[in-house]
Amino acid sequence: MNLRRVFSTVVIVLAGFVTPGMAQETLGDLVASGGYDWIIGRWVASTEDGQKVEFDFAWALDRHMVLNNLQMGDFKYQGIITLSPIGQEAVDQGVDNRGGFWKGVWSPEGDGLVRRVEHTSPEGQVRKGDIVVDKADADTITIAIYPTDSSGNRSSEPMTKLTYKRQPQAKAVPVSAAAEASDRATDYQKLGDLVAEGGYTWLIGRWAGNENNQNYELEYQPILDKHAASVDMKIGDFRYAGLITYAPSRREVVEFGADTRGRTWKMVWAPDGSDLATKTEVTQADGTTQKFQHVFAKIDNDSFQGKLYTLTADGSRGSEPVEQVTFKRQKPAEKAK
Fold it and tell me: Is the pTM of this model over 0.90?
């Protein structure tokens, strides 16, 4: 499949057309009821050779999501933690700046928490492990990383274990500036490679539209040395946040995210003639799923149109869109002083 056409699907706005949801337990409710609020914050440790390691856990989407970031030397990871409607598990998915994709589940263990993770390299190699977080006091935690075998059994000794101290929240760094900090070559294609190859850098930035007196706001920004992109969508009091990445081993551009109505989203992007389309599956708070197709067409460098289609039982889309919105480019947000 032509990589230019594969990447072009990234432009499709996926969360723009939504229906009201019922109130339900949020991730914040689950964390509070278990007494695990202590993990939220910025944590810093130093290795034996003096290298700084920093974890940052921050609430987002009215406590429907936790942003989970890690930086150690030139290694960077960004993930999102959401509440799965199936089994009420705290699910963690993320991307690093070396082409790795991470997924896992958080669960209680004693007085602490354990994150069972699975890492897939750009070549498709899979490794598994446990990250165990224990609270010492309100401002001190330990984080130990254990390898696990094919059956999920944990090694008796951790590969590393460090003590972390709570730190004041750092000032936010503009995402666009962080994305330009590194442009090192890789032996695999990443999302940024596809952006440049396909000529789709015009997609990056802030967009706004209005349809039926409803305002739509959308922002795409590159992150993690252009291995991924963040997505932020607002429609009135509704908000969606997600991450887009390219999986070289599967040759797919994928997106995953959540919204303020307790729903989780997953998408696979593909070309649709001269337009762009996405297969979108939304899981409701009660575990039921809905499937849509979004088709987007570039008008010019400063505008594009998105169309929402229903899907029939056999997976084909309706002949006419049920809704469509034209988006116009907006000026970049002012940087915090």
Answer: no
